Amino acid sequence: MKDYIDLRSDTVTKPTPAMRKAMVEAEVGDDVFGEDPTVNALQEKVANLLGKEAALFTPSGTMANQLSIKSHTQPGDEVIIEATSHPYNFEGGAGAALSGIQFLCLKGVRGILDALQIEEAIRPADHHFPVTRLVCLENTHNRGSGSIYPLEKMAEIYRLARSNGILVHLDGARLWNASVATGIKPNEYAQWSDSVSVCLSKGLGAPIGSLVAGTKPFIDRIHRFRKMFGGGMRQVGMIAAAGIYALDHHLERLKDDHQNAKRLAVGLKELKGVTIDPKHMETNIVIFDVTDTGMTSSLLADAMKKEGILIHAFSKTQIRLVTHLDVGAEEIGIALKAFEKVFGKK
Ligand code: TLP
């Protein structure tokens, strides 16, 4: 296959030679029996990083979110969520199919909700209504161009939820990015949620793997659901080793991805038909509108592919670029030249 510069997602990274070495050398055991030392070490490491009692390894971020929803709700319950969020839009309708819940979607500003909006959406205690049981937040917010949830907003939402007997789940697939960008530690963010999911297979560059963290009884419950959903794995330490390696070596470098994303956004702003505000690109996701080019995003994606650059047509009029471990400053320069060729300067 031709060597493309792949900006479609930070999920496309390939394990580095050092990561592969760590995987090959991992000590393993049967994790369904709880006997894989590398998985146990990863779970402990992530629980500590997130300031939670325990954590559970899962094959994907989707499963991590869905186990949390399953554990926190009963069929018929309502889950308040932002309208462009991942669990609502990109998890195959799993909330309804696997947990029998309904989502109540609120529109945020680049994915960010505030407590007042949520307060107004909480159902009164009346038998006509579903029970509002859970609020799901996403930090960073994928569709919000990797926007960062301000810590105070999370705290305010958590206090509101608590005072109404409602739980909070945080989809922290890219919480690492938020943390590196702001200097706020992952546990400071995670303290404002009852459960938090994090991914190792996005910006951190591991090939597979996510975790959910929370209290011990919560982890015990989702352990059973993970088995039920077919996510109990065996000698999975080989994969957990990649996660440990990623946390030890790839966390701080997320700063480079953020710089590269900013450089892309600033460069794109100068191009014909592109609508973008670089100040809204806070981490590694760049979303821009192409309505004024008069072309659809998928046609533009095809044209960019011919230039050797893969991009994601996120909607008819929107394109998403994500920076990551396998795209350095040099590739960003090449990509910007290709964008200039396809779009033209303003
Ligand atoms: N997001 C993927 C696609 O599904 C859109 C991507 O390329 O960004 N939460 C968030 C915020 C995510 O962005 C993703 C993946 C997930 C959860 C799900 O993770 P996986 O793909 O491991 O199930």
Tell me about this structure.
With 346 residues, the protein is α/β, with parallel strands linked by helices. It has helices at 17-24, 37-50, 61-72, 86-89, 94-99, 115-121, 151-163, 175-182, 186-190, 216-228, 237-249, 254-268, 297-306, 329-343; strands spanning 5-6, 54-58, 78-82, 102-106, 132-138, 167-172, 195-199, 210-214, 285-289, 309-310, 312-313, 318-322. The strands form three sheets. The chain has a seven-stranded mixed sheet, with helices on both faces. Helix 1 (17-24) packs across helix 11, helix 6 packs parallel to helix 7 and helix 12 packs parallel to helix 14. The radius of gyration is 20 Å and the shape is globular. Residues 9, 11, 60-62, 65, 86, 90, 138, 142, 171, 173, 199, 201, 210 line the site of ligand TLP.
Please describe the topology of this protein.
Elements: E1 5-6, H1 17-24, H2 37-50, E2 54-58, H3 61-72, E3 78-82, H4 86-89, H5 94-99, E4 102-106, H6 115-121, E5 132-138, H7 151-163, E6 167-172, H8 175-182, H9 186-190, E7 195-199, E8 210-214, H10 216-228, H11 237-249, H12 254-268, E9 285-289, H13 297-306, E10 309-310, E11 312-313, E12 318-322, H14 329-343
Parallel strand pairs: 1-10, 3-4, 3-5, 5-6, 6-7
Antiparallel strand pairs: 2-8, 7-8, 9-12, 11-12
Helix pairs in contact: 1-11, 2-11, 3-10, 6-7, 12-14
How many alpha or pi helices? 14
- Taking all residues together, what is the mean pLDDT? 97
Main sheet, how many strands, which sense, barrel? Answer: 7 strands, mixed
- Can you give the helix content as a percent range? 40-55%
Detail the poorly predicted runs: none
The molecules bound to the chains, other than polymers, are: ligand TLP
Global structural class: alpha/beta
What portion of the residues fall into strands of 2 or more residues?
15-25%
